[in-house]
Give the backbone structure.
Amino acid sequence: MAANQTPEQQARDRIDAMLLAAGWLVQTQKQLNLQAGLGVAVTEVQTDAGIADYVLFINAKPVGVIEAKREEEGQHLTQVEEQSASYAQGTIKHLKHQSLPFVYESTGALTRFTDYRDPKPRSRPVFHFHRPDTLAEWLGQASTLRKRLQHIPALSPENLRPAQLRAIVNVEQSFKENRPRALIQMATGAGKTFTACTFVYRLLRYADAKRVLFLVDTKNLGEQAEQEFLKFQPNDDNRKFTELYNVQRLRSSYIASDSQVCISTIQRLYSILKGEELDEALEQDNPHEASTAWQKQAPLPLEYTPKNPIEQFDFIIIDECHRSIYNLWRQVLEYYDAFLIGLTATPDQRTFGFFNQNVVSEYSFEESVADGVNVPYDVFLIETEITQQGATLKANQLIEKREKLSRKKRWEHLDDELNYKPSALDKEVVNPSTIRAIIQTVKRSLPQIFPDRFDAKGEFEVPKTLIFAKTDSHANDIIDLVREEFAEGNDFCKKITYQAEEDPKSVLNRFRNSWNPRMAVTVDMIATGTDVKPLEVLLFMRDVKSSNYFEQMKGRGTRSISFDDLQKVSQTAKHTKTHFVIMDAVGATKSRKTASRSLERKPTTPLKDLLTAVAFGNTEEDLLTTLANRLMRLNRQLQADEHAQVVELSAGQSLTQLIKQLLNAYDPDVLEARTQAILAQLPTADGVEADAKAQAQEALAQEAVQPFNAQLNTFLVQVQQVHEQVIDRVNQDTVTFANWDKTKTDNARQVVQAFEAFLLAHRDEITALQIFYNQPYRRREVTFAMVKVLLALLKREKPLLSPHYVWEAYVQLDQVQVATPEQELVALVSLLRRVTGLDGVLMPFGEQVNRNFQRWILQQNAGQHNKFSVEQVEWLRMLRDHVASSFHVEVDDLDYTPFDGLGGRGRMYQLFGEEMVAVMDELNEVLVA
């Protein structure tokens, strides 16, 4: 573009280039030749509504207009829709024609598009212009896609779980409302892919969608999705999906023109749009977790590629969308003019934001457990001295070193003492005795956890166990020691990673369907999305930073399985899988990142005692949740006549109904619905909502416990004794702790949660909280008096949440060694910084102030100013100390101790002159940053 062009001319040049790239011919009226090609864009065309910047012709007939604006007008494009629509509805000079359906507004950088044949036409942003052959194809159709979506027939519930039915109905309603993005949140194991196959089939058959893209982020997930489509058979047709429609899993840049469903990794799709080929090895790792070399490069922005026009897909389904829609990948999704549907079990705030808060269906882990779709879990902790505290290698000690890949060994003397932390284990430092101690504990504990898994010869059958390792090298160490400690051969324990010498798919298939291997070790290949229903034990020997990833890893064990299918691979099983066990050897479950807690809150309390507590009127949340968890297991073991007796003794309610009522008693959504129902019957008044909520909570709890009469409780205890044996949970040998998780940090976590909830509840009425939460740039204004108001309210409403008490809770959770400040107000400010995210871990406010002061002093000395004098530095330090104890310093403070003893404001003015107030203001800002 020429430098002397006007912004309008520059926009026209960009638009011309875009049209040419999309296959349009661009002509002026002087060059007019509508027969020159399928699609011709003619500039400056006179209509009875004015001059249209561009009129689009297909086969010499006008079909649309483009209203061009300079780039600075991008934010106002929706405001010119009326203008562009008037051109489309007007009449072109010398022509007779109907209103033109296709309307664009564009700056060349931003473009919006409206198809006025749609029901309730609505403009939408598009990456580029559509191709002429696409518009010709659309004109040849009796109705638009969005109109066809209005007439999708009702869905039959046959072969669908309630959650799947709800998700499909709601996502189709979202399509009918022309919502561009929709999110389906469905617990791992609840059948997300089957749900997607169902609505994809309906879109292809009943809405005549041209092509659907199923997007994943690992090759493994792509292969699984392909298998789901291959075996999917719709309710209303006897043929398989692949007999009706072509499914292509992309292995290169070629996208077949006759493929109705394409399956691709997002990495491959990005490469396709960049015009590059992709090494399949780069599809093996989840790019959101992995740190592959190509990902570290700055992502190049996508440009339009004619081989892959924006209309290539009508719908894009993003599997595991919580990790596939950020940074580099977002532009891939926004390239296409398509509906976006996200599938995930673990959305976060970014996920909700990307999908415009349009969550069409939510199905939590707890709901899936209550419905019998998934099974709950218990946590068994294993702690050793070294995994908790690390260890030391002394100087001059002869040590072994080993190359990670070749595993070649050499020996050398250690020059300096090496102190290594637990986080260095199996990365920088390998301690075979630590791995051995954990494996020995697992071997010793499994018979106690599963006491009914002995065969006729008295030999214990190890449940199917998946071990998460940190690295491939770590996996090899684990496998060697598992085989040795369990006294088994090669087939007993196998590695399933992309780097495994054996075909990982073959090993995974045997692990899923055959007796051997009993144990499998993986790094990440089956961490997410892989269905291994017989799994009953997950052994974590690696921690995970991402809460979503950790939830997905836990999801490997949640799958339910029939008794017959379980017995095929675990022959000593006496009943179907009722739960799974997380054996945590690295503290993975104790991190706050875990979104879904184990339902078992009282693991050592017998069922009889739980039922007795309920009978005496105890309705605490932990009690009801734990009782629900126990009854879920029992529910899977009962015979038909025993289920019938439960119904009889509970006055007509099944055990499943009893379980749901126990969980509903403290379900926020159920509570809100009941509260609103009560409010509808009450006159409006102050405090009535709180009373209604309390009344609803009490009613739900009483409804949950009411059926548990003496006869039912006695029967449940007796029937449990028939089906379940007592588990002896012990801590032995070289480990420091090996037992069921008694949640050492539960109290601390509850304190922290209560404290955070209190702050959130008062964030808009306390000035200090308003600043910390909503206006962090004003932290310099926070005064001693402001924090004192918050402390007074805290002591009045939540006396147990004293700052020192909450401080100790954070010390435990953050695992930091910091002394409790003497002043409650100083502790409170540190806690505010921790809660609002200013500090990643708990840090004394005075320490943070001192760090900021040192940094500021260095900057001042390194800048253009002369170095401060000795007396100036002494005054600056007094100001620092005052901020550390009082959070803010003002000129009036100079009249008091300690400043007044050294001359007060007068002396400071002599030292700093006109800069005195500016220096104080700057310190107020930088010291609390």
